[in-house]
Amino acid sequence: MSGTDATPDPAKRAAAGGAGRPDRAEPGTVTAASPVTATGGPVTAASLPGRSAPARTRAPFAERAAGRLAGGALRVFLVVAALFWLLPTLGLLLSSFLSPTDLNDGGWWQALTAPSRLTADNYERLLANDTITGSLLNTFAIAVPATLLVVTLGAFAGYAFAWLEFPGRDWLFLLVVGLLVVPVQVALIPVSELFGSIGLFETTAGVVLFHTAFGLPFAVFLLRNFFAEIPRELLEAARLDGAGELRLFARVVLPLGGPAIASLGIFQFLWVWNDMLVALVFADSAHPPVTVALQQQVRQFGNNIDVLAPGAFLSMAVPLVVFFAFQRQFVSGVMAGAIK
User: Fold this and answer.
1) Of 134, 289, 295, 339, which cross-links 139 as Cys (Cβ 3.0–4.6 Å)?
2) What is the mean pLDDT of residues 180-188?
3) What is the DSSP string of 30-52?
4) What pLDDT does 65 receive?
5) 82: which residues sit within 8 A by CB, 6+ positions away?
6) Helix (H) or strand (E) run with residue 258 in it
7) Which comes out higher in pLDDT, residue 206 or 119?
8) In the 8-state DSSP scheme, what is residue 56?
9) CB-based contacts of 105, cutoff 8 Å, min separation 6
10) What angle do CA 245, 225, 175 make, to 5 degrees?
11) What confidence tens digit (pLDDT) does each residue in 107-158 have?
12) Strand ranges in the chain using DSSP code E only, listed in sequence order
């Protein structure tokens, strides 16, 4: 054995009719000693008669049941939370359809057990009350212009701070951001003196200007940050095509900024519509908005529930309608941006 290799050549062993030891074959390889099927392939569990490949491992029944139970519990919790959230609105709605006598006899929940007590007489009295109906129109006259001015001026200023170069741009933007922390109560007395000197105190225009001034910092901050995320290449391509700044703003920036503009319009309208402090100070006492008019009804007629309930519900229903109307556009704008 000296001078020779103790391990014989596998080729020689194969030529001699021998075969390698099966226990040393690589896993998954076919050797001469491996059984084969009629088609020549190796024998597996799936090729044996009466046998099939092992099925995929499935989650145990307990885990699936626990997952479904957790999902059902979450849905039940969300439904209960939504019902508690909407309970005051439901109570106000049912109270607006009940007569003062029925409300004094019991609560609004009696309308659920005795629907025959529901009546529309309260809304007829409301429409006959010139103070409430006029206050609704006055609120529209304040909320709509204040919302349009804030959205328009905020969009122009946001585009300027995002894409136009001018001296002191960053410092001016920091000043605008700093105005966000100024509370409304601080400006009531000085602005009242200013409006009194120029003849805007107790006027609709004065209330609109006040809401516009205090709504612009947030509008500029929001729209500037949104417009700054627009790709620069897109704006440069539009400029190469010959678009000026105004056309670029109207044709490119505004369509892309639709979600932010819609959300800003929603919040601004809700803030102005539900405001009472600014309207109580600056609005005309003879032609107040709906929040002040309802407060005057409570002060003068504490038990005037047949007017207060439908008036309060209408004052709440209008911003809800506006919110859901703009929300549809907001969601469509977000989906369009996601597709792009």
Assistant:
1) 289
2) 89
3) --TTS-B-TTSPBP-TTTSTT--
4) 65
5) none
6) helix 258-274
7) 206
8) P
9) none
10) 95
11) 777 777 777 778 888 888 888 878 888 888 999 999 999 999 999 999 999 9
12) none
What is the crossing angle of helices 130-163 and 121-128, to 10°? 80
Please state at what angle helix 184-198 crosses helix 204-227, rounded to 10 degrees: 130
6-15, 228-237, 294-303 — most confident range: 228-237
Name the residue among 64, 43, 67, 46 with its Cα closest to residue 55: 46
pLDDT, tens only, 209-251 = 999 999 999 999 999 988 998 888 988 888 888 888 888 888 8
Tens of pLDDT, residues 49-105? 555 545 454 556 666 666 676 677 788 888 889 888 888 888 888 888 888 777 777
Q: E-assigned strands of 166-259?
A: none
pLDDT of 19 higher than 80: no
What is the distance, to the nearest Å, from the Cα of residue 58 to the centroid of all Cα atoms in its chain?
Answer: 38
For 242: left if phi > 0, alpha if psi spans -120 to 50, otherwise beta; the answer is left
What pLDDT, on a 0 to 100 scale, did the predictor assign at position 3?
44
For residues 227 and 159, give the distance between their C-alpha atoms in angstroms, rounded to a whole number: 6
Alpha-carbon distance 17 to 8, whole Å? 13
Residues linked to residue 36 through DSSP beta bridges, in sequence order: 42
Which amino acid does the sequence have at 6?
A
DSSP state of 252: I
Instruction: Please tell me the distance from the alpha carbon of residue 213 to that of residue 207, in angstroms, as a whole number.
Output: 10
Q: How far is residue 259's CA from residue 254's CA, in Å, rounded to a whole number? A: 10
The whole-chain average pLDDT of the chain stands at 78
DSSP assignment of 264-318: HHHHHHHHHHH--HHHHHHS-TTS--HHHHHHHHHHH-TT-HHHHHHHHHHHHHH
